[in-house]
Specification:
- 30% of the residues lie in helices and 21% in strands.
- By secondary structure, it is of the alpha/beta class.
Length: 840
């Protein structure tokens, strides 16, 4: 059978989903796929666009596998715009002049931002909020405006989902955001009047200025860049204006090709997502008008992609309809709506609970007999969304009022029927998840891999966790085969019994001799509960290679040396010593992202001599090798910066000196910013501290890595003493309860009650353990000793730092370097040197 060609125009989230679906099902490789992507970046997470602010790393938003590098049947061409479709010849032409033939054409062109016809909408300083390039332009304008003094004003036209996301982006860029919404409330499509009032108050408290019930009459040049005139006659002096007034289907290419479009735009298709004009053309995502209706959410877009993939392989799939429910966190505020949220069903009744003091609003829409759930709205607390949304159209398990009352008994995920859709993004039912669990999936990662649930927005993961917990499938909490207890339980055992050796712990509470899982964990627990040197007595045998030599091992067997620089500070004398050490020992020097200096290429027997010189210069171990505090990054704050409102450097130094050497389940990092401009990137850290005029805002559980998470606000307006007290409690609570190698973000995700529970524990002492947590930190601070100083003072410990036990003075002959280029690089003996172009 000859292979057919399918051309995909557009490579957003839905286009990528189509390629994945077709390739995963095409068992006979019947189709070759050419993807034409207009943007310079292949498919990325447009839903998470605002997370680009702060990292400014496009790779962080890239969808997994979006380059198809290992698939010869997928040809991805970026920066390639299709300018014409010849339906008779079945070809498309790109702006580069390439003509590509197709057997099937899939239009995945998405949508474009609607810019209202307002006078002045083309002036410099006016932007839309849709792509990474858009955000780069907004950032450049915000940076240019910020040099003139106080926080510049940014205006967002549109108070819907994307409008509030855009406002949050402006806020994180150091601007003062104003939101202009023509409707009488924010998010008019998702929330009602009562929910809108609560939402407006919550976002206003976070620094937004909201103008509802007014339009934008005109835009002109002004002293700050722009003058925005509102329909009520008032004006706003602004540096930046962002249009976020909705989107329109990107159907110009289809119109030019003579395809029929819907009444409100979009390529008109049947339920098979095939164009009603041309059998060889399909449309998916936001550009498709399925039987006349366009859907602007990712979940129905994914459904259209799956339908077309099935159709091309001979199936008869049809678009199943769309769940337009939404759940998201806007500026840290939970908002959710589902089903008939506005109660338009004849005879519908509304049950409303509004708590202005707590900033929460909940409404359920039920049938006229109050037995069937029709829809709902949740603002401020959306924790019930996962179990309520799948019940839409079904009989309620109890009194509607109790389902949204804080004191009421909430239905668990186990009460859902098997055909209830838990993951609306990927159409995964409770039955499918329970089936995966019955087949052996016993954790979130395995359920994701088996069902795709939770792999898109993640909003269903709390429900998936409930299903795992209530499934009856035993989920082992054992640390490993040698300990039936979890890490948290072993921590409490060590704390209560004062056991100080691994052998004593395993003989009383475990079996066997231990392994490379439990030994480092016990070593960490012992280090977290006492100030003994980690290389003393039995402790040394428990450590991994890095901790065993108090340095990070590199790819050629050498080690890196990282002295601590609290808050990024370093004296000229210490810099001179670092330079001399690097020169004398032939080390490669690199500045790190944590505001300190890393020296690479030290042999193990050189480490004591290197550290002797650094310690004599007043420096100590930066513990870059440990599961402990790494760095406290800071800006220069009010001491030097004209925008700073607090002494961020002084606070960063105090925090680093307090928490240095603190061992934990995983590494953790701090950031301290002297103002809302956030130069220290505090919200990307495990502990982020941001200065305000009223004190300090404390953010927690931000992580980088493959799945970056922004830190969330734990408490605001704190004085120095309260800030430190809350951090003490937070860190010790994390150390006691987290799993092995669990960073703070996934720890918080797995914590029962999430952020609200953490706030109760840390700020309100809901468990009555605050004094105990603070005392544990005081004990750590009092007992801290620099690990390398301890080695230099102990001949027994110094004896460990040799390349060969039987020839302690002989360096390892396999360690070699290449100094021929601009940088010193390690050479792996027995392997060819690899050039930057990949050649040997």
């Amino acid at each position: 059978m000859s292979r057919k060609n399918v051309v995909v125009v557009g490579h957003g989230m839905v286009g990528h989903r189509f390629v994945e679906a077709l390739r995963s099902r095409d068992e006979h490789d019947a189709w070759k796929i050419t993807v034409l992507c207009e943007e310079p970046d292949p498919a990325y997470d447009r839903v998470g666009l605002s997370s680009y602010v702060g990292t400014w790393d496009r790779k962080e938003l890239a969808l997994a596998g979006n380059d198809y590098a290992a698939d010869p049947l997928v040809d991805l061409r970026v920066s390639s715009r299709v300018v014409a479709v010849d339906r008779a010849a079945r070809t498309v032409t790109t702006d580069a002049g390439d003509v590509l033939a197709y057997d099937a054409l899939v239009l995945a062109t998405g949508s474009y931002p609607f810019v209202p016809p307002i006078p002045g909408n083309e002036l410099p300083g006016c932007f839309v909020y849709r792509t990474l390039d858009d955000l780069d332009g907004i950032r450049a304008a915000a940076d240019a405006a910020s040099v003139h003094g106080d926080a510049p004003v940014g205006v967002v036209v549109g108070g819907g989902l994307l409008g509030l996301e855009a406002a949050n982006a402006l806020r994180r860029l150091g601007m003062s955001p104003h939101v202009v919404e023509f409707a009488p409330r924010l998010m008019p499509l998702q929330v009602d009047e009562g929910g809108g009032r609560v939402l407006e108050r919550l976002v206003t408290d976070l620094g937004l200025t909201v103008h509802t019930g007014v339009g934008t009459a005109g835009i002109s040049e002004g002293p700050s860049g722009l003058v925005v005139e509102l329909s009520d006659g008032s004006t706003i002096d602004a540096a930046v204006l962002v249009f976020s007034a909705g989107v329109r289907p990107q159907d110009a290419l289809a119109r030019d090709a003579g395809l029929e479009v819907g009444a409100r735009g979009g390529v008109l298709t049947d339920l098979g997502c095939r164009s009603t004009t041309d059998d060889a053309i399909y449309a998916i995502g936001e550009c498709a008008a399925v039987e006349g209706t366009c859907y602007g959410l990712v979940a129905p877009g994914y459904s259209t992609a799956e339908v077309v993939a099935d159709r091309l392989l001979g199936g008869a799939a049809e678009f199943p309809g769309a769940d337009l429910s939404t759940k998201l966190k806007l500026l840290g505020v939970d908002v959710a709506s589902f089903g008939d949220a506005h109660g338009v069903t004849p005879g519908a009744l509304e049950v409303v609970l509004s708590d202005s003091a707590k900033g929460t609003y909940a409404k359920l829409v039920v049938s006229d007999d109050a037995k069937t759930l029709l829809g709902g709205i949740l603002v401020g607390d959306a924790s019930s969304y996962g179990t309520l949304r799948p019940l839409v159209g079904r009989e309620l398990p109890g009194d509607p009022a109790t389902l949204i009352s804080p004191a009421g008994e909430k239905p668990g995920a186990g009460a859902l029927p098997d055909d209830a859709e838990v993951c609306s993004c990927n159409g995964v039912t409770k039955g499918a998840i329970c089936g995966a669990i019955a087949d052996g999936a016993c954790d979130i990662a395995q359920v994701k891999a088996c069902t795709n649930a939770g792999t898109t927005c993640g909003g269903c993961l709390p429900t998936v966790k409930q299903l795992l917990s209530s499934s009856g499938v035993p989920m082992s909490k054992a640390l490993c085969e040698h300990f039936e207890q979890s890490r948290a339980e072993l921590f409490e055992i060590v704390r209560a019994t004062q056991i100080r050796t691994f052998s004593a712990l395993i003989s009383r509470y475990g079996t066997g001799r231990g392994c490379d899982i439990c030994k480092p964990v016990v070593a960490s627990i012992l280090a977290s509960t006492d100030s003994d040197h980690i290389l003393h007595r039995q402790q040394a045998g428990l450590q991994d290679t890095n901790d065993h030599f108090l340095a990070n091992i590199q790819k050629n067997g050498t080690y890196s040396v990282v002295p601590r620089m609290p808050g990024g500070e370093c004296t000229p004398e210490q810099l001179i010593v670092i330079g001399e050490v690097a020169r004398d020992f032939g080390l490669y020097v690199k500045m790190t992202g944590g505001q300190r200096i890393d020296m690479f290429g030290a042999r193990v027997e050189q480490l004591p001599a290197i550290w002797k010189r650094l310690v004599d210069a007043g420096m100590e171990s930066g513990q870059a090798y440990g599961k402990s505090l790494r760095t406290v990054k800071s800006c220069v704050g009010s001491t030097w910066c004209r925008y700073g409102v607090q002494d961020s450097v002084g606070m960063a130094v105090d925090l680093e000196m307090r928490y240095r050497g603190l061992r934990a389940p995983h590494k953790f990092k701090f950031g301290v910013s002297g103002c809302a401009r956030e130069c220290a990137e505090a919200r990307g850290k495990d502990v982020g501290v941001i200065a305000t005029e009223n004190g300090w805002n404390l953010y927690v559980c931000g992580n980088g890595g493959q799945s970056p998470k922004h830190a969330q606000l734990l408490a605001g307006g704190l004085d120095d003493e309260t800030l430190v007290r809350y951090i003490d409690r937070f860190l010790m609570f994390y150390i006691r309860t987290a799993d092995r190698l669990q960073r703070t973000a996934p720890w918080l995700d797995a914590l029962d009650g999430g952020l609200e529970h953490l706030k109760d524990v840390v700020c309100n002492d809901s468990l009555g353990i605050a004094a105990e947590l603070e005392a544990a930190m005081v004990k750590h601070v009092a007992g801290y000793k620099d690990e390398w100083s301890g080695v230099l003072e102990d001949p027994e410990l110094l004896a460990r730092f040799v390349s060969f036990v039987n020839a302690p003075d002989q360096p390892d002959p396999t360690i070699r370097f290449d100094d021929s280029g601009k940088r010193k690089v390690p050479v792996l003996v027995g392997m060819p040197k690899i050039g930057r172009d990949g050649s040997a």
